[in-house]
Design a protein that fits this description.
By secondary structure, this protein is mainly α. About 65% of the residues lie in helices and about 0% in strands. The protein has two domains: about 90 residues, RNA polymerase sigma factor, region 2, helix turn helix motif (Rna Polymerase Sigma Factor, Chain: A); about 80 residues, Winged helix-like DNA-binding domain superfamily/Winged helix DNA-binding domain (Arc Repressor Mutant, subunit A). It is globular.
Length: about 200
């Protein structure tokens, strides 16, 4: 029988303990924090900026900010969400400095029903299970604006909830659902010739 998944309370307790160790100067504690969350930080920033050198520098900047502001973490939400929020903020500021638009669709609702926004039959995890399809999928995602490809990554690959993504990005939940729907629709148009990418 597989081990039970840790509950959100377990995660928060572990997060608080790790933060207390970092703030208390326990040797290796901050390195442990970085190792645990560097993948998420990289995903957020890389999906936003799509430039390896910039991503590397911005990840370093993000963890520097995490270290400087860690005393502000209250332990009310998962540490990964708090760190993703820092990464999002660093990447967003980078795009603003470069005058790169975050999105090419309006930030308000578009009249889509909730069912149309979420239950559209797109399975990004399944789509990435085949190497060739995964390569074409990621190439297609790169053609999306920074906001859309980042939201897709957070929702489908990092498996964060709409609420968590809202906390990270500051966007309304309905806006996030609308962006996800539009993004999946664009991906479907780009990838429709491939068999087995989309659920029936």
């Amino acid at each position: 029988m597989p081990a039970a998944e840790p509950t959100s309370d377990d995660v928060l307790r572990a997060d608080r303990a790790l933060v207390a160790d970092v703030l208390g100067g326990v040797p290796g504690a901050f390195e442990t924090l970085v190792r645990a969350h560097q993948g998420l930080c990289w995903h957020v920033i890389d999906r936003m900026v799509r430039h390896p050198e910039d991503t590397r520098e911005l990840c370093q900047e993000a963890f520097l900010r995490v270290h400087q502001a860690l005393h502000q973490y209250r332990g009310e939400s998962a540490l990964k969400s708090w760190i993703a929020q820092v990464a999002w903020s660093v990447a967003k500021r980078h795009l603003e400095r470069r005058r790169i638009p975050l999105a090419d669709v309006p930030d308000d609702g578009d009249g889509l029903s909730l069912a149309e926004r979420v239950a559209d039959g797109f399975d990004l995890e399944q789509a990435t299970s085949d190497d060739e399809i995964a390569a074409r999928l990621h190439a297609a995602m790169d053609r999306l604006p920074p906001l859309q490809r980042t939201l897709l990554t957070l929702y489908h690959l990092e498996e964060l909830s709409i609420g968590e993504i809202s906390g990270i990005t500051g966007l309304a939940e309905g806006t996030i659902k609308s962006h996800l729907f539009r993004s999946r629709k664009l991906l479907r148009a780009l990838l429709d010739p491939l068999q087995g990418v989309f659920a029936a």
